[in-house]
Amino acid sequence: MLGIILWLSFSVKALAVLTVIPDLTPDDFRCKGDSAVHPVCRWNNHEYCDCRGGGLPQAGIDPQLLNLLNELQRRFNKPVIVNSGYRCPQHNSYIAAELYNWTDDCGNPGNPYEVSTQSRHMMGAAADFYVQDYELNPVEVIDTILSIQGLNQQSPEVRIYWVNQKKRDGSYSTNYYHYRAYSTPQWWIHPYAPQEGRDLDNRHYSGVYIHIHHRVNFDESSCQPCYDN
């Protein structure tokens, strides 16, 4: 009987070891450009070529972003899948041009203005991600992100927004995104429904994903973060 108990105890411990999720590293955030596969796109009388991919920002991936997503993995004991991490300026511009030339399965045209020219992706301070097995429950993931910061949806530091869609002509529509966006002193958190935000980096994935970026200042000349905290 004692032998069975010891065997069960060992088996449970072994199972716990097997389910440890490896930490995310900067390699998980490398630029997803691929000029060998992606064709040249034309937009606003300019031609855009994608980068070769695999790059990382000069200053590295934002350490607070990396720590936050790793803590999220530990709390859920599930992998965080990064669809889009760092985007070099060339890849970021290509994504916008490619959206202009793309239509979805319903014939709706892509919107290049969804891609910010000051995207925190270009600083390594943003990620589009989902938590495995929680693809349809982004609110629980967002609540956990807030909890990591010692906050909840009722905290005075948390602001909640309905976000307007920006149209192809640059104006804003009266149609709101399906999910609400959240702002804290450090982070902007924006979940995208399956029919939203399907740029080139996120198009392979049909579920809900969350965009998060660190609210740091942006140096346009170098595409690098300017930390003021």
Question: How is this structure best summarized?
Answer:
This protein is 24% helix and 21% strand.
Task: Provide structural commentary.
The protein has one domain. The protein has four helices and twelve strands. By secondary structure, the chain is an alpha+beta fold. β8 and β9 (187-192) form a beta hairpin. Strands 3-4-10-9-8-5 form a six-stranded antiparallel β-sheet, covered by helices on one side. A two-stranded antiparallel sheet has the order 1-2. A two-stranded antiparallel sheet has the order 6-7. α2 (63-76) crosses α4.
Write the layout of secondary structure elements.
Layout: H1 2-18, E1 41-43, E2 46-48, H2 63-76, E3 80-84, H3 89-100, E4 126-131, H4 138-148, E5 159-161, E6 164-166, E7 172-176, E8 181-183, E9 187-192, E10 209-214, E11 217-219, E12 224-226
Antiparallel strand pairs: 1-2, 3-4, 4-10, 5-8, 6-7, 8-9, 9-10, 11-12
Beginning-to-end CA distance, first to last residue: 59 Å
Figure out the total of helices: 4
- Counting structural domains, the number is 1
Helix content: 10-25%
Shape: globular
What is the number of beta strands? Answer: 12
Q: Which residue ranges are poorly predicted, with pLDDT under 50 across at least 5 consecutive positions?
A: none
Output the structural class.
alpha+beta
Q: Which strands sit side by side, in order, in the main sheet?
A: 3-4-10-9-8-5
Gyration radius, to the nearest Å? 20 Å
Order of helices and strands: HEEHEHEHEEEEEEEE
Average pLDDT confidence is 87
